[in-house]
Design goal:
Elements lengths: L4 H5 L2 E11 L4 E10 L2 E3 L1 H6 L4 E5 L4 E4 L1 E6 L12 H10 L2 E6 L10 H14 L3 E4 L15 H7 L4 E2 L8 H13 L4 E3 L4 H4 L4 E2 L2 H6 L3 E2 L2 H17 L3 E3 L5 H12 L4 E5 L2 H4 L21 H12 L5 E2 L8 H4 L16 H12 L5 H8 L1 H7 L14 E11 L18 E11 L2 E5 L1
Parallel strand pairs: 1-4, 1-5, 6-7, 7-8, 9-10, 10-13, 11-12, 13-14, 14-15
Antiparallel strand pairs: 1-2, 2-3, 5-16, 16-17, 17-18
Bound molecules: zinc ion.
C-alpha cells in the first residue's frame, strides 16, 4: 500500500497492562495506554494506525504522567564543570523526570531574554527531557533593581525567582509581585532573611552549638515566608516558597492557605531524610541552604505533606565539583545533587516508611501540582496530551550507587542507601529516553 511521507513518519507505542494512575483525571486502573505521534491517544486510533507498533510490557508497574521537577540547577551557561544541560537532563531522565524547571543563577545570570533564548536553544540541541527556564527577579540577582520581567515573560520563562538569593527589600519584592501578576507568572522565593541568618552554615540548634559552627536560625526562613504571605495577600498573586524546612514555616503556610491566600511551598527529600545530627562528621555533602534541621522540623514537614499544606516535591538539584566540596565546612558551597535519588527517597520515606501519603498523591505532587502552579501543558495522561510518561516500580528495592549517576557531579550524601521504589522507564513526547 502506498504511504505518503507523513504517514511513514508516524510512530505508535502501546504500553500494556500497567496500573495507569492519572490523578488529573481521577483515573486508577489496569489498562493499556496508547501513544500515537507523540501524544496520548485512544486505543481505537492505534488500531487504525498505519505504522509499526512498539509494545512495552508494564505488568506490575505504574504508568504515570511524566514527573516534573520544578527546582533544578543545570549550571549552564557558565558552570559546565558542575553540570551541563546534556548531563543534567540525562540525570533527570534517569530519575523519572520528563520536565524540569531550571534556576537562573547561571553565568551570565538568566535575567535577560537573550540568556533565556540561549538556554532554550541549547536545550533544543542537547536535552533529552523538557527544560523550562525561569528568569531572575532582580538584575544580576543583586536584589537592587528589577530584571525586565515583561521581556522575560515574552522570552518564555515559566516563573521568576532569585533562587540562591532572596530579595531583602520588601518594597522591591512587592513591585516584583505586581509585575509578575501583570504578566501572569508565579513568583518562586528562596526564603532567607540575611540579617537573621548572617554567615550561618547549619541549623541553629544543639549541633551548631556543640560543633561551633555558625547557626542559620529557622526564623531566618519564617520571616520571609511571612513576608511572602503578606505580599501575596496585598497583591492577590501566587508566591511559591522554595525548599521549606521548619515547624514555623509549615504553621504559617497552613494558616494562610486555610484563609485562601495564594501561597504554596515545596519540600526537598534531604530535609525529611536527614536531620542536622548528620553534620557531626563535618562532611560537606550534608551542607545545604536552607540547612538540615531538627527532628521536630522533619516531623512538621511530614505532617504538612500529609495534610496538603506542602503541595509540591522537588530536588533543588545543586551540582558542585569534588574540588569545590572537598574543603573545610565553612568554605564549602551549599547544595547536593538530587535528580537521581529524589523519587526513590520520597516513595521510600513518604509511602513505605512513614505512610504519610499514598503513591497516587505522591504522583500528583510531582505532576498535577507543579503543572497547575506553572500553568504547563503537562502532568496528565488525557487523550491528546503530550505523551510524557514515567513507568514506576513502587516495590523495587535498590541501592544508591553514585558512581553510576548520569549527573556530572557526585555531591550526594545518599551513597549506599537502600531504597524501595523507583522510576524504571522515562518517555518524553512518545520517545523512550531512559530505561533501567
Ligand atoms: Zn534555594
Amino acid at each position: 500500500m502506498f504511504r505518503h511521507a507523513e504517514e511513514s513518519k508516524m510512530s505508535a507505542t502501546i504500553i500494556r497492562n500497567g496500573r495507569v494512575i492519572d490523578p488529573a483525571n481521577q483515573r486508577d486502573e489496569v489498562a493499556d495506554l496508547a501513544i500515537v505521534d507523540g501524544r496520548v491517544s485512544d486505543l481505537s486510533a492505534i488500531r487504525n494506525s498505519q505504522s509499526a507498533i512498539d509494545e512495552i510490557d508494564a505488568s506490575n508497574l505504574i504508568v504515570a504522567p511524566g514527573l516534573i521537577d520544578m527546582h533544578v540547577h543545570l549550571r549552564e551557561p557558565g558552570f559546565s564543570h558542575k553540570e551541563t544541560i546534556d548531563s543534567g537532563t540525562r540525570a533527570a531522565a534517569a530519575g523519572g523526570f520528563t520536565t524540569i524547571v531550571c534556576m537562573p543563577n547561571t553565568s551570565p545570570v538568566a535575567d535577560n531574554p537573550s540568556t533565556i533564548a540561549w538556554i532554550k536553544d541549547r536545550a533544543a540541541k542537547a536535552a533529552c527531557v523538557r527544560v523550562l527556564p525561569t528568569g531572575a527577579i532582580s538584575k544580576d540577582l543583586a536584589g537592587e533593581e528589577l530584571a525586565p520581567i515583561g521581556s522575560l515573560a515574552q522570552a518564555g520563562v515559566v516563573a521568576i525567582t532569585d533562587d540562591g538569593r532572596c530579595i531583602q527589600n520588601h518594597e522591591l519584592m512587592r513591585r516584583a509581585v505586581e509585575y509578575a501578576r501583570m504578566v501572569n507568572l508565579p513568583l518562586l522565593d528562596h526564603c532567607q532573611d540575611y540579617n537573621l541568618v548572617g554567615n550561618g552554615v547549619v541549623h541553629e540548634g544543639y549541633w551548631s552549638t556543640l560543633l561551633g559552627l555558625p547557626g542559620w536560625p529557622a526564623a531566618g526562613e519564617e520571616a520571609m515566608v511571612m513576608r511572602n504571605i503578606l505580599l501575596s495577600e496585598l497583591c492577590d498573586h501566587q508566591i511559591h516558597c522554595q525548599h521549606v524546612t521548619s515547624v514555623g514555616t509549615v504553621r504559617l503556610i497552613r494558616e494562610a492557605r486555610a484563609r485562601g491566600v495564594k501561597i504554596s511551598a515545596e519540600v526537598c527529600p534531604h530535609h525529611i531524610a536527614l536531620t542536622d545530627a548528620a553534620i557531626q562528621n563535618f562532611d560537606t555533602n550534608y551542607k545545604m541552604n536552607p540547612p538540615l534541621r531538627a527532628q521536630t522540623d522533619v516531623d512538621a514537614l511530614l505532617e504538612g505533606i500529609a495534610d496538603g499544606t506542602l503541595s509540591i516535591l522537588a530536588s533543588d538539584h545543586a551540582p558542585h565539583a569534588d574540588f569545590e566540596k572537598e574543603v573545610e565546612f565553612d568554605a564549602a558551597p551549599f547544595g547536593i545533587i538530587g535528580l537521581e535519588t529524589e523519587f526513590g527517597l520520597f516513595v521510600d520515606l513518604l509511602v513505605h516508611k512513614h505512610r504519610k501519603i499514598d503513591i497516587t498523591r505522591l504522583i500528583e505532587m510531582y505532576t498535577v501540582e507543579p503543572a497547575k502552579l506553572l500553568k504547563l501543558e503537562a502532568g496528565s495522561l488525557s487523550a491528546g496530551a503530550p505523551a510524557d510518561v514515567t513507568l514506576i516500580d513502587p516495590e523495587l528495592e535498590w541501592t544508591v550507587k553514585i558512581n553510576n549517576f548520569q549527573s556530572a557531579s557526585r555531591n550526594s550524601p545518599f551513597e549506599g542507601w537502600k531504597l524501595k521504589g523507583r522510576a524504571v522507564r522515562t518517555i518524553v513526547g512518545g520517545k523512550p529516553v531512559w530505561a533501567l
